[in-house]
Amino acid sequence: EQTNPVARAIDKVIDAVADDGAAGEIPGRPGAEPPSLAEPVEPREPLPPKPDQHGPDPLTATGQPSGETAESRAQGGPFLTTATGTRLPDTDHSLKAGPRGPTLLRDHHLREKITHFDHERIPERVVHARGAAAHGVFQAYGTAATISKAAFLAKDVRTPVFVRFSTVLGSRGSADTVRDTRGFATKFYTSEGIFDLVGNNIPVFFIQDAIKFPDVIHAGKPHPDREIPQAQSAHDTFWDFVSLHTEATHHTIWNMSDRGIPRSYRMMEGFGVHTFRLVAADGGTVLVKFHWKPKAGVHSLVWEEAQLLGGVDPDFHRRDLADAIEAGAHPQWELGVQIFPDTPEQTFEGIDLLDPTKIVPEELAPVQPIGLMTLNANPVNYFAETEQVAFHVGHLVPGIDVSDDPLLAGRLFSYLDTQLTRLGGPNFNQLPINRTHAPVNDMLRDGMHQTAVHAGAAPYRPNSLDGGCPFHAPDGYVEVPVPVEAAPRGRLSPASFDDHFSQARLFWLSLSPVEREHVIAAYTFELSKVYEQAIKERQLLVLARIDPVLCREVAAGLGLPAPDGAPEGDPAASPALSQVGRTWPTEGRIVGIVAGPDLDAVRTVRQAVLDGGMVPLIIAPTGGVLPGPGEPVTVQRTFAAARSVEFDAILVAGAPEPGADAQGARDAKAGVSGTVDPRVALLLNEAYRHAKPLGGWGEAREAFTAAGIPATAPGVVTGESAADVLEQVTGLLALHRVWERFPSALG
Ligand code: HDD
């Protein structure tokens, strides 16, 4: 019996294949009926729920029955009905006057079916339209219990959560791997009401005041005339804005770094960005910044991979999250807080805690873990859950309060407002995914899409007709009575908000040489896509304020002179900001195994990969089961479907077989392939260029040579023993990439 959950999931497939054999049966699906064009005529039993999925909690806000049953939700009821429950004998033909006659207006079923279909879409989110989500649980360590009275932060309390990850700029159907900020929004269904932590994977924001949100988003969205480019910042309006609006400099350099292209949602940090205020049971307060730290480590794609994935698998992050959960490899994050004294200045070590363009380096204020979140179930229905979930920074519980960060203030208005348009009215909190798990006793009544049937005569206060209910709650949510500064009213900001460059420089100085190279390449790529020369020149002036090397290298790439300018400030580096040079867990990483003729070696190494908690995917010329004696080995990726971008490392099990499919035969006939299929050569070549660990044994060297990979290249492990090769490759995987393969020109 396998203990590794990924292994268990894969074993199921293998067992199914191993059970094959009866004549006429479908390979891999013993007992299944052979395919047929005839429609089923008998109702089937309702399908059992899928083990990796669960829907929103079945609690209703009011306890009202809904007419909906588990069967109807699962489409498992025996007979088709209209929306009002009348059984239907036919839904394939509209009502006509004779078989060739005109369609009749009285056909209510036709109109109901088409009208409902016409209204299936709701407006996509104006930002963060593209997303993926999962259910899970948050378990508190109790370490925050002394600084916050929130019930869900008490030791060992387990709170259901729903997390939605997203990109910001793209439309709902855009690619996952674009260069962008990622949303990281968590809904905690606590016993005291809902707490939403609506953060990003970047700890700072483009603007310091919410009033500029429409400006930054209009600049980042596609151009208004042709609606291009989709889901990216590499265009004139974005760079026009950020080069003029220099408070965006810090967020922009994070976007241009590896953080803008995460490897997976599972491997991203999350940040609450703003400073929040925690309130203890005795009324004491501290200021905090929230951090999510992924157990799987912080990893990124390289830019070429991200671009390839846009075409090869635009759903890469969405699929990765769902697959991991389905396989039982449940992603986890530790929630932590940086804690600052709640002083009247609201600064820490000279850093303004109300300025959302600033971080507090972890070296100055360590992140203190307060609980663990595990995502353990996929949504059952994308629309009902992931699309209809409505987050709001104002959803707070006693023990957590907001600060006066002016960006947060505007958000407190915006999130409620946007749901009215997006979800069609003020009752969106009654949607199953948005329902609180705490008892609701409000006096909000009526409105579009009201699903509660409220009893009671007096939804107002004070009343006597309902016995005075509901009463004020003595332990209810109270805003912290922070004194308000006596100062003249005005459209103002503090002087500290004028520092736009020192922390962009801090970030740059904290990166390793290879990460700095990526930043240079990203600015160069993006600005190369800008048509207006003046915008590029202006952005170079901004870069000169960050660092002369950054400015010089980007200018060289653009073919422009580097302007003079001195960097601002001399901040100390924060090593915690770099993703390179640390070792990370290898569990859940994807290892491609290009199968060779020695099936025993393939079986052994596949098992060893599983035992190491990683996910092996067997790559072979064609699908099905590898030909040969012994326990069957199922192929997961054919040469036609395997692209390097899917794998974190690739192993070559001896000389791979040439492609036996139509493409392979055509290439062989045309003399394109040598002994190694060109698709295998491309696979290895790309993985090599993307600094991924490679390993092989037996005649594997032939494949590496065909891919143009030098024999002595770092991170290319060859040997006679598959076990030794795998051990070394796993060691390399813990470092994520083999960066020393491409020594940095920056030193
Ligand atoms: Fe926002 C959605 C994160 C500033 C207005 N935002 C949205 C989502 C995330 C964030 C993760 C997607 C939630 C989901 O999955 O449904 N937003 C942030 C962060 C910000 C930020 C971390 C700065 C620190 N946002 C911000 C400002 C405004 C908005 C300043 C407006 C003044 N955000 C919205 C919105 C959205 C939204 C228009 C779109 C859909 C939605 O709210 O429900 O109201």
UniProtKB/TrEMBL annotation:
Pfam families documented for this protein: Catalase, Catalase-rel, Catalase_C
Taxonomic classification: Bacteria, Bacillati, Actinomycetota, Actinomycetes, Streptosporangiales
Biological process annotations from GO: hydrogen peroxide catabolic process; response to oxidative stress
Protein name according to UniProt: Catalase
EC number(s) stated in the UniProt entry for this protein: 1.11.1.6
Species name: Nonomuraea soli
Active site: 128, 200
Single GO term (MF): catalase activity
Region feature (Disordered): 18-104
Residues annotated as domain Catalase core: 81-469
UniProt keyword annotations, A-Z: Heme, Hydrogen peroxide, Iron, Metal-binding, Oxidoreductase, Peroxidase
Domain of life: Bacteria
A cellular-component GO term for this protein: cytosol
Gene3D superfamilies noted in UniProt: 1.20.1370.20, 3.40.50.880, Catalase core domain
Cofactor(s) needed by this chain: heme
Functional note: Decomposes hydrogen peroxide into water and oxygen; serves to protect cells from the toxic effects of hydrogen peroxide.
Skewed-composition ranges (Basic and acidic residues): 41-55
UniProt cross-link 3'-histidyl-3-tyrosine (His-Tyr), position: 392-415
Reactions listed under catalytic activity: 2 H2O2 = O2 + 2 H2O
